[in-house]
Fold:
Amino acid sequence: MEEQSNPRMIRWSPADFQGKDVPESAKTFLIESGLPAAWMGCTSIEFDLFDNEGPDLVIGVVSESPIVVRNSGIVEEEGDNKNWFINSSVQQLAECTKIYDALRQTGDEDNPRAAIGIARNRMQEIDPVCMSTAGSSLWRAVLEDMEALCW
Structure:
């Protein structure tokens, strides 16, 4: 794995997928586009390559919980007590990450709830499942936490 010209982006190499049962579309995206190395917000997320056993590819961590790409292509956080759905694909993860990052950096200070609502709607357009998985959606929980804080 290498960092490319944009130091915030991590891109995987074909060798990083050795023994991993990951869809070709996910592999291609992680090799060609990658994910941001790390960013902070209401939650700390880091994308990188992590050693792991088994067929799932660990692409990052939320705090200390691994973020995995399943053989179906979905992206989940493996929490202590349950798995949290993040996105239906790594491509949708990248898009939702951009929306969240923009919200954190440029959230409407006069009306933060409206900015959060816009972010929620945009994420739902990109990946309807990421907002409709009641009780186990990471993005839904993060935005609800932000809304409760209304920074």
Remarks:
- Residues 2-149 form one domain.
- The radius of gyration is 15 Å.
